[in-house]
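Exercise 7. Given the encoded structure of a 837-residue chain, write a plausible sequence.
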C-alpha cells in the first residue's frame, strides 16, 4: 500500500511535511464536495426513476385496457396482454435497480462522508491547535533570558510537553490521513461495483425475459408482414370501390336520381328492399317521422335505430294493397292498406315513390308463390356496356393481378430469387428494368428515383398485358448479364439475404446508378452489334404478339356506281376498306352513350362551344368505315382512300445507311426496330439516350423505330424508360402518326393511354385522325374519336373525374388485351379487287 504521508517526516515537521499536509487537506476537501455532489445526483436519479416507473405503470395499464377493448381479436388481445406482463416485469426490475442504487451509492457514500471525513476533520482541528501551541512554546523558549533560570526551566518544560503532545497528535493525524486515503479507494470502488452489478443483474433479467418473449415476437413479425399485405389489398379494394361508388354517385347527380333502389327477392340477408321513408303517425297530431323501412320475410317493417327491434307495419303482404295518395298536402305519398290498418308513407322523390310501390306490389305477388319455386325474376335494366368488343360472346380478359401475374413473372429463368441479393420468392418488380426484387431491395430501388427504377408489387398491383410481356422478355438473368458483367473481374461481392441494408444499398447504387459493373464495348464490338441489328430479320413470325395477316377469302368485285346515282365515290369498289371490330349498331349505341353522358356533363358550359364539339363528334361517326360500307361519308366531300391497304412490313422497308459514328444511341435505335429488348437494355446501360435522334434518317427516334418494328412490348419498354411519346421526326410526325399510318391499332391504343397528342399535325397538316380516315381504319378512327370525346368530358368535369369516363376506360382496356393476347383481330385486312370507273 502506498503511504500518502511519511511518519518519520511528520516528526521532523519539515516544510516538505507541511506542504504534503496542505496538499492532502485540499484533496480531502475536494473529495468531500465531489462525494456530496455524487450523492445528490444519485438521489435525483432515483427520484426520476421512481417517476419513470410510475408513468410506465400507467402506460402498461393503458396497454391492458387496449387489450381488453380488443377482446374480439384474439391475436391482438393475447399479444398485448403478454407484452403488458413483460413490461410490468421490467418495471419491477427497474424498482430493484433503483433500490440497489440507493443502498450502494447513496447510503454507503453518505456513511463514508459522515463518519470517516468527520474523523479527519476532528483530527485536523487538534493538529492545527497543537501546531499553534508548539509554535508558541518555541517562541517563548527562544525568548527566555539567560540570567533568569526559573523562566528558562519553565519554557523548557512547556516546550518539552508541547513537543510530546505534538508528536502524539501529529502521528494520529498522519495515521488518519493514510487510513482515509486507503479507505477512500475501497469505499468508492465498492459502492460503484455494487451499483454496476445491480445493472448487470437488471439487464441479464431483461435479456432472459425477452429471450422467452422472442419466439412470440418473431411469430407476430411474420404475421405482421401478411397483415400489412392484406391491409394494402383491402385498402386498394376499398379505394377502387370508393372510386366506383363516387362515379356512380356522380352519374346519379346528373340524372337527378337520389339513390338506386332495386327489388331483390333473392337477397342473401332476406331483405328484398330497404331505405328511408317518412311515416305519418296514427296519433291525433298526425306527425311525420323519418324511419328506416324494409321489406323482409313477406312483411313491411321499420325501425328508428339499428339496435331497435323492427316494428311490423304489415304482417302478411298477401293481405294488403298499395296505392298513390294525391289528396293530401305532402308530395310523393303512398299508402299501404291492410284489413286491420293503413300506413301513410312519403318518399323523397317521385322515382323513389314509384320504386317502393313497385317493390310492395312485387312482394305481394311473391308472397303467393311457393318458397321453393324459382319463379320469374324481375327484369333489371342493364347499363350501357362495351360488349361489342367481345368476340364470339367470349368473356373479356381483365388486367392480371395478384397470383396470376406473380406466377407468370417468376416462371422466367432467374426470377425466382431477388435480382440483387438472391432472396427467394420475391414479391416486387422494377418494371423499367424488367427484374424481380425482394421487399428490402424494392425499398432501396424506390429511393433511387423513378428515373432509375420504377417499383411495382407483383401481388398488390394490376398488371397490363403489355407490361407483363415486357417482364417476361427480360428477367433477372438477362439484366444481370448486362449490369454485373464485370463484377467478378472487379472482385465485388454480391449481397446475400440478411446482409445489412447499407451494404445492399451501396451495391445497388454502384450497379444501377454508377453502372460500375457494366462492360463497355469497344468501337469494333459496337459497330458489329449495330450492323447485326440493322440487318436482323423481323421475328414477328415467332412472336405470339404479332401474327402475319391471313390471306382473305376471294371477294366478288364491286361494280362502280354511276355518276348520276348520287352515291359517293367512297362507296365504290375501287376503294379498299378494313373491317371494324364494331358493328354499326354498336357504334351508334356507343357514341349515343358518350353523347348522352357528355351532354349531361356539359349543361353548365353551354356557352363554351364544347356542346357543338360533341355533336360534331357524332357527325364524325358518319364518316367512320364500318363492316357494312364506307358509304356513310359525307357525299359533298368524299374522302380519298388508297386502292390497297397492305399489311405493314416495317423493318424490311427500313434501309440501313453506314453512319458517321457508332454510339449506344444508334444501338438502341436499331434494337428498337429489331424488337430485341436485351440489346435495348444493354444500350441504355451503356448510356444511350432514350430519346436519341438519328439526324441521318429524318430525325427518327428509337420509339418511332419501335413503331416500325411492329412490337407493342418494345414501345412499352421505351415508354417505361421515359421515352417522349410526342417527339416528332423531321416530317413533324410523332409515334402516333407512324402507328396510325402503319395501321398498328395496339400501338395507337398504347400511345393514347400514355398521353399522345392526337391534335398534332405533320408538315402536310395531317393529324392522326385524318390519316386514319384516309386509310379507312375503322378501329383507329374509333379509338381516336373516343379519346378526344373523353378528353373533352374530362376537361368539362375538371377535378371531379380526372380519369375520364369508365366506359372509355373499359374500351381501351379491351383493345389493350386484344393487342397483347389476340393481335390477329387487330390485323384483319381485306383486299378488294380495284376497278377504275
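Solution.
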Amino acid at each position: 500500500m502506498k503511504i500518502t504521508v511519511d511518519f518519520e517526516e511528520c516528526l521532523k515537521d519539515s516544510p516538505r511535511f507541511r506542504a504534503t499536509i496542505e496538499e492532502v487537506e485540499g484533496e480531502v476537501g475536494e473529495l468531500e464536495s465531489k462525494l456530496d455532489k455524487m450523492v445528490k445526483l444519485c438521489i435525483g436519479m432515483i427520484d426520476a426513476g421512481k417517476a419513470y416507473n410510475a408513468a410506465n405503470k400507467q402506460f402498461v395499464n393503458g396497454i391492458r385496457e387496449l387489450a381488453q377493448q380488443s377482446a374480439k381479436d384474439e391475436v391482438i388481445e393475447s399479444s398485448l396482454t403478454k407484452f403488458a406482463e413483460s413490461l410490468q416485469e421490467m418495471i419491477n426490475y427497474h424498482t430493484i435497480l433503483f433500490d440497489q442504487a440507493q443502498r450502494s451509492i447513496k447510503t454507503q457514500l453518505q456513511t463514508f462522508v459522515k463518519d470517516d471525513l468527520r474523523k479527519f476533520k476532528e483530527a485536523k482541528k487538534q493538529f492545527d491547535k497543537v501546531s499553534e501551541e508548539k509554535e508558541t512554546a518555541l517562541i517563548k523558549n527562544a525568548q527566555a533570558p539567560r540570567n533568569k533560570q526559573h523562566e528558562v526551566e519553565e519554557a523548557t518544560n512547556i516546550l518539552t510537553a508541547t513537543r510530546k503532545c505534538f508528536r502524539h497528535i501529529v502521528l494520529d493525524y498522519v495515521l488518519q490521513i493514510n487510513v482515509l486515503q486507503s479507505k477512500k479507494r475501497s469505499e468508492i470502488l465498492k459502492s460503484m461495483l455494487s451499483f454496476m452489478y445491480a445493472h448487470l443483474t437488471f439487464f441479464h433479467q431483461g435479456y432472459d425475459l425477452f429471450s422467452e418473449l422472442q419466439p412470440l415476437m418473431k411469430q407476430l413479425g411474420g404475421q405482421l408482414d401478411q397483415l400489412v399485405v392484406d391491409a394494402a389489398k383491402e385498402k386498394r379494394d376499398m379505394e377502387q370501390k370508393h372510386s366506383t361508388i363516387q362515379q356512380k354517385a356522380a352519374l346519379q347527380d346528373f340524372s337527378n336520381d337520389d339513390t338506386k333502389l332495386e327489388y331483390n327477392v333473392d337477397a342473401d340477408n332476406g331483405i328484398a328492399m330497404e331505405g328511408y321513408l317518412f311515416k305519418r303517425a296514427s296519433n291525433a297530431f298526425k306527425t311525420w317521422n323519418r324511419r328506416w323501412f324494409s321489406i323482409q320475410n313477406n312483411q313491411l317493417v321499420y325501425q328508428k335505430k339499428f339496435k331497435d327491434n323492427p316494428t311490423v307495419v304489415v304482417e302478411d303482404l298477401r293481405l294488403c294493397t298499395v296505392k298513390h295518395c294525391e289528396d293530401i298536402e305532402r308530395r310523393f305519398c303512398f299508402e299501404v292498406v291492410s284489413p286491420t290498418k293503413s300506413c301513410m308513407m312519403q318518399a323523397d322523390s317521385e322515382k323513389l315513390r314509384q320504386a317502393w310501390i313497385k317493390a310492395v306490389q312485387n312482394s305481394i305477388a311473391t308472397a303467393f308463390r311457393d318458397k321453393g319455386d324459382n319463379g320469374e325474376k324481375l327484369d333489371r335494366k342493364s347499363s350501357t356496356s362495351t360488349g361489342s368488343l367481345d368476340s364470339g360472346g367470349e368473356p373479356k380478359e381483365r388486367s392480371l393481378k395478384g397470383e396470376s401475374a406473380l406466377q407468370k413473372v417468376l416462371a422466367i429463368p432467374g426470377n425466382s430469387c431477388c435480382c440483387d441479393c438472391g432472396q427467394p420468392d420475391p414479391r416486387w418488380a422494377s418494371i423499367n428494368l424488367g427484374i424481380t426484387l425482394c421487399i428490402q431491395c424494392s425499398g432501396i430501388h424506390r429511393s433511387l428515383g423513378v428515373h432509375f427504377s420504377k417499383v411495382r408489387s407483383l401481388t398488390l398491383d394490376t398488371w397490363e398485358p403489355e407490361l407483363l410481356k415486357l417482364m417476361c422478355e427480360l428477367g433477372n438473368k438477362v439484366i444481370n448479364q448486362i449490369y454485373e458483367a464485370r463484377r467478378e473481374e472487379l472482385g465485388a461481392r454480391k449481397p446475400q439475404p440478411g446482409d445489412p441494408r447499407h451494404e445492399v444499398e451501396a451495391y445497388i447504387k454502384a450497379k444501377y446508378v454508377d453502372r460500375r459493373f457494366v462492360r463497355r464495348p469497344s468501337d469494333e464490338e459496337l459497330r458489329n452489334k449495330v450492323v447485326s441489328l440493322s440487318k436482323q430479320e423481323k421475328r414477328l413470325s415467332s412472336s405470339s404478339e404479332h401474327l402475319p395477316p391471313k390471306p382473305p377469302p376471294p371477294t366478288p368485285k364491286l361494280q362502280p356506281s354511276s355518276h348520276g346515282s348520287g352515291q359517293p365515290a367512297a362507296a365504290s369498289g375501287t376503294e379498299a376498306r378494313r373491317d371494324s371490330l364494331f358493328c354499326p349498331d354498336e357504334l351508334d349505341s356507343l357514341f349515343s352513350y358518350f353523347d348522352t353522358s357528355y351532354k349531361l356533363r356539359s349543361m353548365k358550359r353551354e356557352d363554351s362551344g364544347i356542346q357543338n364539339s360533341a355533336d360534331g363528334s357524332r357527325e364524325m361517326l358518319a364518316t367512320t368505315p364500318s363492316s357494312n360500307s364506307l358509304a356513310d361519308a359525307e357525299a359533298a366531300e368524299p374522302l380519298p382512300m388508297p386502292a390497297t391497304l397492305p399489311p405493314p412490313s416495317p423493318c424490311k422497308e427500313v434501309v440501313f445507311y453506314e453512319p458517321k459514328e457508332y454510339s449506344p444511341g444508334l444501338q438502341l435505335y436499331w434494337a428498337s426496330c429489331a424488337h430485341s429488348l436485351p440489346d435495348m437494355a444493354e444500350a441504355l446501360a451503356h448510356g444511350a439516350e432514350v430519346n436519341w435522334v438519328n439526324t441521318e434518317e429524318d430525325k427518327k427516334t428509337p420509339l418511332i423505330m419501335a413503331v416500325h418494328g411492329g412490337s407493342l412490348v418494345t414501345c412499352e419498354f421505351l415508354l417505361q424508360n421515359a421515352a417522349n411519346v410526342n417527339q416528332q421526326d423531321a416530317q413533324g410526325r410523332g409515334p402516333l402518326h407512324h402507328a396510325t399510318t402503319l395501321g398498328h391499332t395496339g400501338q395507337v391504343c398504347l400511345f393514347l393511354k400514355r398521353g399522345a397528342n392526337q391534335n398534332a399535325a405533320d408538315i402536310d397538316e395531317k393529324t392522326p385522325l385524318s390519316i386514319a380516315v384516309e386509310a379507312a381504319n375503322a378501329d383507329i378512327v374509333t379509338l381516336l374519336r373516343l379519346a378526344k370525346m373523353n378528353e373533352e368530358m374530362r376537361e368539362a368535369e375538371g377535378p371531379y373525374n380526372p380519369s375520364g369516363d369508365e366506359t372509355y376506360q373499359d374500351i381501351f382496356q379491351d383493345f389493350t388485351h386484344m393487342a397483347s393476347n389476340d393481335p390477329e383481330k387487330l390485323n384483319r385486312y381485306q383486299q378488294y379487287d380495284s376497278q377504275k370507273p
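Remark. The chain has a mean pLDDT of 75. Students should compare their own answers with the one above.
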